[in-house]
Amino acid sequence: MPERKIRVLAAKPGLDGHDRGIKVICAALRDAGMEVIYTGLRQTPEQIVSAAIQEDVDVIAMSCLSGAHDYLFPRVTELLKEKNVEDILVLGGGIIPEEDVPSLKAAGIADIFTPGATTSEIINFIKANIKRN
Fold first, then answer.
1. Any idea where the domains of the chain sit in the sequence?
2. Are 29 and 8 in contact, with CB atoms under 8 Å apart?
3. Residue 42: how many CB atoms within 10 A of its CB?
4. Bigger pLDDT: 65 vs 31
5. Which residues contact 91 (CB under 8 A, 6 or more apart)?
6. pLDDT tens for each residue of 52-98
7. Cofactor(s) for this protein (predicted)?
8. Quick check: 62 and 73 in contact, CB under 8 A?
9. Bridge partners of 107?
10. In CA terms, which of 47, 64, 112, 129 is 20 to 30 Å from 71?
11. 1: exposed, middle or buried (C-beta count within 10 Å: 0-12, 13-18, 19+)?
Protein backbone atom coordinates (compact mmCIF):
# COMPACT_ATOMS: atom_id res chain seq x y z
CA MET A 1 0.00 0.00 0.00
CA PRO A 2 1.55 3.36 -1.01
CA GLU A 3 2.21 5.88 1.74
CA ARG A 4 -0.30 8.71 1.95
CA LYS A 5 0.95 12.00 0.50
CA ILE A 6 1.72 14.83 2.88
CA ARG A 7 -1.37 17.05 3.03
CA VAL A 8 -0.83 20.80 3.41
CA LEU A 9 -3.42 23.48 4.06
CA ALA A 10 -2.08 26.81 2.77
CA ALA A 11 -3.82 29.87 4.17
CA LYS A 12 -3.78 33.66 4.08
CA PRO A 13 -5.14 34.75 7.46
CA GLY A 14 -6.48 38.22 8.10
CA LEU A 15 -6.97 41.07 5.69
CA ASP A 16 -3.75 40.60 3.72
CA GLY A 17 -4.58 40.55 0.01
CA HIS A 18 -1.14 39.67 -1.35
CA ASP A 19 -1.15 36.05 -2.49
CA ARG A 20 1.62 35.67 -5.06
CA GLY A 21 4.09 34.21 -2.54
CA ILE A 22 1.70 31.62 -1.10
CA LYS A 23 0.75 30.53 -4.61
CA VAL A 24 4.43 29.97 -5.45
CA ILE A 25 4.78 27.91 -2.27
CA CYS A 26 1.64 25.91 -3.13
CA ALA A 27 3.01 25.07 -6.58
CA ALA A 28 6.40 24.05 -5.15
CA LEU A 29 4.81 21.80 -2.51
CA ARG A 30 2.57 20.23 -5.15
CA ASP A 31 5.55 19.68 -7.45
CA ALA A 32 7.30 17.98 -4.51
CA GLY A 33 4.49 15.43 -4.35
CA MET A 34 2.37 16.93 -1.59
CA GLU A 35 -1.38 17.45 -1.69
CA VAL A 36 -2.10 21.15 -1.24
CA ILE A 37 -5.39 22.76 -0.27
CA TYR A 38 -5.32 26.55 -0.66
CA THR A 39 -8.04 28.32 1.34
CA GLY A 40 -7.74 31.64 -0.46
CA LEU A 41 -7.55 35.16 0.92
CA ARG A 42 -8.89 36.69 4.11
CA GLN A 43 -9.36 33.60 6.25
CA THR A 44 -10.03 33.78 9.98
CA PRO A 45 -8.03 31.56 12.32
CA GLU A 46 -11.30 29.71 13.04
CA GLN A 47 -11.83 29.01 9.33
CA ILE A 48 -8.25 27.82 8.94
CA VAL A 49 -8.44 25.40 11.87
CA SER A 50 -11.84 24.10 10.81
CA ALA A 51 -10.63 23.45 7.26
CA ALA A 52 -7.43 21.79 8.53
CA ILE A 53 -9.40 19.38 10.68
CA GLN A 54 -11.96 18.65 7.97
CA GLU A 55 -9.24 18.02 5.39
CA ASP A 56 -7.13 15.90 7.80
CA VAL A 57 -3.98 17.81 6.95
CA ASP A 58 -0.47 17.23 8.22
CA VAL A 59 0.64 20.86 7.85
CA ILE A 60 -0.86 24.34 8.07
CA ALA A 61 1.27 26.85 6.14
CA MET A 62 0.23 30.47 6.66
CA SER A 63 1.46 33.60 4.94
CA CYS A 64 1.00 37.09 6.32
CA LEU A 65 2.32 40.35 4.93
CA SER A 66 -0.03 42.71 6.77
CA GLY A 67 1.75 42.82 10.13
CA ALA A 68 -0.98 40.90 11.98
CA HIS A 69 1.10 37.71 12.25
CA ASP A 70 1.68 38.28 15.97
CA TYR A 71 -2.04 37.76 16.61
CA LEU A 72 -3.18 35.52 13.75
CA PHE A 73 -0.50 32.81 13.85
CA PRO A 74 -0.70 32.19 17.63
CA ARG A 75 -4.50 32.23 17.46
CA VAL A 76 -4.38 29.27 15.05
CA THR A 77 -2.20 27.29 17.46
CA GLU A 78 -4.49 28.23 20.38
CA LEU A 79 -7.53 26.93 18.50
CA LEU A 80 -5.74 23.70 17.61
CA LYS A 81 -4.91 23.18 21.31
CA GLU A 82 -8.52 23.92 22.30
CA LYS A 83 -9.62 21.18 19.90
CA ASN A 84 -6.92 18.77 21.17
CA VAL A 85 -5.25 18.65 17.76
CA GLU A 86 -1.56 18.05 18.32
CA ASP A 87 -0.44 16.34 15.12
CA ILE A 88 -0.50 19.28 12.69
CA LEU A 89 2.77 21.05 11.92
CA VAL A 90 2.13 24.82 11.79
CA LEU A 91 4.39 27.07 9.70
CA GLY A 92 4.38 30.79 9.08
CA GLY A 93 5.84 32.98 6.43
CA GLY A 94 5.78 36.46 5.01
CA ILE A 95 7.11 39.82 6.06
CA ILE A 96 7.89 39.03 9.68
CA PRO A 97 10.46 40.98 11.68
CA GLU A 98 13.23 38.81 13.09
CA GLU A 99 12.46 40.03 16.61
CA ASP A 100 8.94 38.52 16.36
CA VAL A 101 10.16 35.01 15.49
CA PRO A 102 10.97 33.81 19.05
CA SER A 103 7.49 34.65 20.39
CA LEU A 104 5.84 33.00 17.39
CA LYS A 105 7.86 29.84 17.94
CA ALA A 106 7.01 29.94 21.66
CA ALA A 107 3.34 30.07 20.63
CA GLY A 108 3.70 26.82 18.70
CA ILE A 109 4.69 27.90 15.20
CA ALA A 110 7.30 25.32 14.16
CA ASP A 111 9.23 27.71 11.94
CA ILE A 112 9.00 31.02 10.14
CA PHE A 113 10.07 31.46 6.52
CA THR A 114 10.73 35.02 5.42
CA PRO A 115 11.67 36.47 2.02
CA GLY A 116 14.79 34.75 0.79
CA ALA A 117 13.80 31.32 2.07
CA THR A 118 13.92 28.81 -0.76
CA THR A 119 11.12 26.46 -1.61
CA SER A 120 13.58 23.60 -1.07
CA GLU A 121 14.14 24.76 2.51
CA ILE A 122 10.40 24.74 3.16
CA ILE A 123 9.88 21.34 1.54
CA ASN A 124 12.79 19.78 3.46
CA PHE A 125 11.58 21.28 6.74
CA ILE A 126 8.11 19.84 6.23
CA LYS A 127 9.42 16.39 5.35
CA ALA A 128 11.73 16.36 8.37
CA ASN A 129 9.17 17.62 10.86
CA ILE A 130 5.67 16.33 10.07
CA LYS A 131 4.09 14.79 13.14
CA ARG A 132 2.19 11.84 11.70
CA ASN A 133 2.88 8.29 12.78
1. 7-129
2. yes
3. 14
4. 31
5. 59, 60, 61, 62, 109, 110, 111, 112, 113, 122, 125, 126
6. 999 999 999 999 998 899 999 999 999 999 999 999 999 999 999 99
7. adenosylcob(III)alamin
8. yes
9. none
10. 129
11. exposed
The answer to whether 129 touches 96, Cβ cutoff 8 Å, is: no
Distances (CA, A) of 30 to 10, 46, 60: 11, 25, 14
H helices of 1-114, where?
Answer: 20-31, 45-54, 69-82, 101-106
Residues sharing a CB contact under 8 Å with residue 79, sequence separation 6 or more, in sequence order = 45, 46, 49
Instruction: At 5, give phi and psi (nearest 5°).
Output: -65, 150
> Which residues contact residue 92 at a Cβ distance below 8 angstroms, ignoring those fewer than 6 apart?
61, 62, 63, 64, 69, 73, 104, 109, 111, 112, 113
Q: In what order do the strands lie in the sheet with 35-38?
A: 35-38, 7-11, 59-64, 89-94, 111-113
CATH architecture of 7-129: 3-Layer(aba) Sandwich (3.40)
